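Note to self: keep these together.
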Amino acid sequence: MSLLYINYMEKIYQTLVSLPNLKPSPYVNKVFSALVSHVCGPYMKHTLRGGQVIKLRKMCSLGEYELEKDAALTMLSKNNPLSALQDFIYYKNYKDLVALEFVKSGTIKKISRVLFIGGGPLPLSVIILAKDYKVVCTVIDNNQEAIDISKKLIESLGLTSMVQVQYCDASEFNLYEKYDCIYVAALVGSTRKEKNSLISLIY
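Structure:
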């Protein structure tokens, strides 16, 4: 494997660091697409150091947040938010994933109340669970902007009776035992230690 290939991740990292922001744009989308292709490649190796890896994860989290925020605000600006939701580039993927997760979870126990930690501005999994499977959901997030946007979106979709959205840090939440199923968003916690600490609180 060539050193050029190994250092490609370094090039992507430096490009992301140099960007003024990570809001969706043709160029930002292109850089993140290159990152995904490289990480999913068969020979994913890199020369990034520990601190750079953590920072890259945080940039990916911010990039995902900006993408969801932009999509949610676009949906809210439309006369038919549901139609705009269904046009979202990842909507079909999420429907398939939620179907798979829900069916598998249902083989363990009956699911009627779900808690989603880290819903962000576009809690797509929760929306699909409530809309398609009639599951009562609670979303918690420690980002007030995300809470404000997701509340408006849930209301615009007519799902306020099925979905409650509240500002809360997962480390301070004390009602985990009331839920049949708990989702933890992939981007909650930027290190393994942070993720394990949260899991230990839940269980």
